[in-house]
Design brief:
445 residues; mainly alpha; 0% strand; rod-shaped
């Protein structure tokens, strides 16, 4: 194993440089197995978890089951609940596969863990499932693993006959691999079983075999060699990490400096853009404000023209009415028939002039300035009278009651009454709502 570890580490470095994922995963799996056998569980788990991540990405179910099974095995001596978690995940995946060898391994391992947790029911449940699959495999190593495991479990349960029976079957299946860790363990298990059965002759025989295998494996020396290699590898890794950290620090300083320079440039650009945008926005606001002022002045001027036109028409009508009254008085006082006829002609001409609908003309002029006002008003309030519409137009121009009274020739009180009636038609119960403001909401969309 110590020689294997050296070569695996060298191969791992080569493949990492070449970034060959499949080869790296295979090597890390082998490294994990060697580290687990040399009792470096932390290192073993590190490599197994690397393999697990890779196989999850590759979605290789068989390899996933194997690595989950291996992780569960390492956790057997660290955390039984974690061990069960990974074995159960392997067991769930295994149900979708037709690999009986894998199923035997996983079931056996689950049985071992439940045995350690003193849960005999579940231990026997999984051992039974594993034994039910033995006839479906020809792999002696798989069978030997199951019989060896059950022999070890039976020893803890003090069922010595079952220990001897299953351990001897496992040894027979492993007869070509006597000088192995499995052979070592089985001979030790048999020696202990025979001691408990007080068959000391058989116990000595198996203990001698155990010693022979132990000397052959030279486990302690190999463990020392493995530890030396591990320490050398750890030192090399720490040196590489130190160099990498220093390189990262230098790179970080360069990056920070570069980021600061770029940040200052970006900030300067943003400030310039912000200043230019502010100037542009101010100019746009000024232009918009001037346009609004011009539009307002233009509208005010047109409104003044409308008001002036309405007032001039009223004054013209008043003057004509006064002239008509005066002419009628003159006609009554004049005995001359020819003069009376001449006065009648003048009266007719004046009355004809007086019959012109000045408010119709006003509405036409108003509509030209305030487009569709009357259409929208009629659409929302179709029952308004012509007088109501005329009052609405004058209120829309923000004229006071006094000004409307002067234009229409009606009394102040009549205008106030007309305003009250109009509020009722608009259903304006809130006294705080100004009638002129409400009518200004009728501006076309």
């Amino acid at each position: 194993m110590d020689i294997a570890l050296q070569y695996y580490i060298k191969a791992h470095e080569i493949y990492k440089d070449k970034k060959k994922g499949d080869e790296i995963s295979k090597l890390e799996n082998n490294l994990a197995i060697i580290y687990s056998q040399s009792n470096d569980k932390k290192k073993a788990l590190q490599y197994f978890f690397n393999v697990l991540s890779y196989q999850r990405a590759k979605k290789d179910s068989i390899k996933l089951v194997k690595v989950l099974n291996n992780i569960g095995t390492i956790y057997q001596k660290r955390n039984l609940d974690s061990s069960i978690y990974y074995y159960k995940e392997a067991y769930a995946l295994n149900k979708q596969l037709k690999d009986n060898n894998l199923k035997i391994y996983v079931c056996t391992n689950l049985a071992q863990v439940y045995g350690l947790k003193k849960d005999q029911n579940k231990a026997h449940l999984y051992y039974d499932e594993a034994f039910s699959l033995v006839s479906k495999t020809t792999d002696n190593a798989v069978k030997a693993f199951l019989y060896e495991s059950f022999a070890e479990y039976s020893l803890k349960e003090k069922n010595f006959d079952a220990v001897i029976q299953n351990a001897q079957i496992a040894l027979e299946l492993n007869k070509n691999k006597i000088f192995s860790f499995s052979g070592l363990k089985l001979n030790k298990i048999l020696s202990e079983a025979y001691i408990n059965k007080q068959d000391y002759k058989s116990a000595v025989r198996y203990f001698q075999k155990y010693n022979s295998i132990n000397d052959s494996l030279d486990i302690e020396q190999k463990a020392v060699n493995l530890e030396r290699i591990r320490l050398e590898q750890d030192y090399k890794v720490r040196t590489q990490i130190k160099e990498l950290v220093e390189e990262q620090k230098r790179s970080r300083l360069y990056v920070i400096g570069l980021v600061l320079v770029i940040g200052i440039l970006i900030l300067a650009i943003l400030l310039i853009k912000y200043r230019n945008r502010n100037i542009s926005n101010q100019l746009e606001k000024e232009i918009l404000k001037r346009k609004e002022q011009e539009l307002k002045q233009n509208l005010d001027a047109k409104n003044m023209v409308l008001i002036g036109k309405a007032m001039s028409e009223i004054h013209r009508t008043d003057n004509i009415n006064e002239i008509l009254v005066d002419l009628k008085k003159i006609k009554l006082k004049t005995p001359n028939k020819e003069l009376q006829q001449a006065i009648d002609i003048v009266l007719k001409r004046l009355e004809k002039n007086l019959n012109v609908d000045i408010w119709k003309e006003f509405e036409i002029s108003f509509e030209q300035v305030h487009k569709s006002f009357f259409d929208k008003l009629s659409q929302d309030y179709p029952l308004l009278t012509p007088k109501d519409r005329r009052l609405c137009a004058l209120l829309y121009l923000d004229l006071t009651t006094k000004e409307i009274s002067q234009i229409t020739g009606q009394s102040f009180k009549s205008i106030e009454n007309a305003r009250t009636r109009l509020r009722k038609k608009f259903d304006l119960t809130n006294e705080k709502v100004n009638l002129s403001t409400y009518l200004n909401s009728f501006k076309p969309d």
